[in-house]
Write a structure and sequence with these properties.
disordered N terminus, 28 helices, about 0% strand, globular, mainly alpha
């Protein structure tokens, strides 16, 4: 589905509605809700990825309003999305008015999910004929097909619709949306720019354009698009502010990113994400003390056992580890492991902290446990264990592990080579020069960082080796 509801969900009136509903669910208050209010709440939960709460809201809507068509359709669609097509069909068949257009759309979805494409196409054809080939109907059909990942079918409908209505704004919008979903970004950008020529103050079009540039990692262009949203919407721009902050973060402009996260925190103090991201900005700026302060503030605002809490604990563990406070780092890793006890990377983090404290047997047990847990991505676990070995001075073991991963497509060269390179320099291996040349080609910045050298653009391996030898002599 599209993001047309996102701005409504950010508005105070919806937040008040959601608060009343959650107070009612907690048993603190008694309120009456219209069916449309409850379906909006269900839509919100669905967008948050909480299908259980979404269906609970729909069940409550149907207890209050058992014949409400929108609630029945939403409930059937929820059952379909959650992998229960038979239940969805039973709900659909219970609806009295089978000629309703939304019922026909839902039946089409069921047919598509059952791979009965010709039947779905026939039903959609009947619908377009019944509604006299209206542009809005074409748009709804195209959106349905795109949302159900029937791209080839959608493209045929787009071609037909555009032939009938070459200048129709709604159809152009649907076509742009379809191209974006299919990652046909050039076509989507062209269409959204055409729409902006018609309606230059449309925050929807600017937002969609910004999302495309973000996905293409053209962050400067994404910032420009989202800043138009902010300029047009004023205070109603939570998503756009976040998008700009994330763009600056991805560009490595952590100071500017932090300014935007700070603005979000001031305008929306009830949200924890800005504090976490402000902490991450400080981590990347090398200011661990300020990062700890932000993370500590964030911990005071989030629910116990949440994903966000686990992320904060793991980041605090990494900070204390860098400070050399390994016992304290281990306690924060333990807190994260209470939330995700089978997370291989957290287990390796705990093993690393124990290894730093000389607890070799205990750390080995944890490393082996992580490898067993992460059998589907054992290369990532091996890499992290290899780095831990290197950081603890066990260069031979680290070199053995990292060498196993060389040329393995599961580990990117820019991630592996700097560490492998450092091992080979320390161990005086014959392959060091070749590995260094590849490391400088794939990831010069990380290579200089690992060796604690000032970057030199375009430097050859031989030149860097001479610098390393000179530093060794001086030290």
């Amino acid at each position: 589905m599209r993001d047309q509801f996102a701005s409504y969900f950010d508005k105070p009136e919806f937040k008040q509605l959601l608060t009343r509903y959650e107070e009612m669910k907690a048993g603190d208050r008694h309120y009456y809700f219209e069916a449309t209010e409850l379906t909006d709440i269900a839509e919100y939960y669905a967008m948050q990825g909480d299908s259980r709460k979404a269906e609970a809201a729909l069940d409550y809507a149907l207890r209050l309003h058992p014949d409400n068509l929108d609630a029945l359709i939403f409930k059937a669609r929820a059952r379909l999305i959650n992998g229960h097509p038979t239940e969805a069909r039973h709900i659909l068949d219970s609806i009295t008015d089978q000629s309703d257009r939304e019922v026909m759309f839902l039946r089409s979805e069921l047919l598509l999910s059952a791979q009965q494409y010709s039947q779905a196409e026939a039903l959609l054809r009947a619908l377009i004929e019944e509604e006299n080939y209206e542009a809005d109907t074409y748009a709804d059909i195209i959106d349905l097909l795109v949302d159900n990942e029937q791209n080839d079918m959608a493209n045929l409908w787009i071609e037909e619709a555009i032939r009938r209505y070459p200048d129709n704004k709604i159809l152009t919008e649907s076509a742009a949306y379809s191209h974006a979903r299919q990652e046909r970004f050039d076509e989507a950008i062209t269409l959204y720019n055409r729409l902006l020529d018609i309606d230059p103050y449309s925050t929807l079009y600017w937002e969609e354009l910004g999302k495309i540039y973000f996905r293409r990692e053209e962050y400067d262009k994404a910032i420009e698009a989202f800043e138009f949203v902010i300029a047009i919407n004023g205070d109603e721009c939570y998503y756009a502010l976040y998008a700009v902050a994330n763009c600056y973060f991805n560009l490595g402009n952590y100071e500017r990113a932090e300014e935007y996260y700070h603005t979000i925190h001031e305008r929306y103090p009830e949200t924890v994400d800005p504090l976490f991201h402000m902490g991450m900005c400080r981590v990347n700026r090398g200011d661990d003390e300020a990062a700890l302060d932000y993370f500590t503030q964030a911990l005071g605002t989030i629910p116990e056992g949440s994903e966000e809490q686990a992320q904060i604990y793991s980041q605090m563990s990494l900070i204390f580890s860098r400070m050399g406070l390994h016992a304290k780092a281990a306690t924060y890793t333990d807190e994260a492991l209470k939330i995700y006890p089978d997370n291989a990377e957290l287990i390796i983090m705990k093993g690393h902290e124990l290894l730093c404290q000389g607890q070799y047997e205990e750390s080995s047990e944890l490393f082996l446990h992580a490898l067993d847990l992460n059998a589907d991505n054992v290369e990532r676990s091996l890499f992290l264990i290899g780095v831990s070995m290197l950081e603890n001075g066990h260069c031979e073991m680290s070199h053995y592990i990292l060498r196993l991963l060389k040329d393995n497509p599961a580990i990117e060269a820019e991630v592996l080579y700097p560490y492998l390179c450092y091992c080979e320099w320390t161990l005086h291996t014959e392959s060091f020069r070749e590995t260094l040349a590849q490391s400088l080609a794939h990831c010069p910045q990380k290579t200089y960082e690992i060796f604690n050298l000032t970057p030199a653009q375009g430097e050859s391996a031989d030149s860097m080796i001479e610098r390393l030898k000179q530093l060794k002599i001086e030290n």
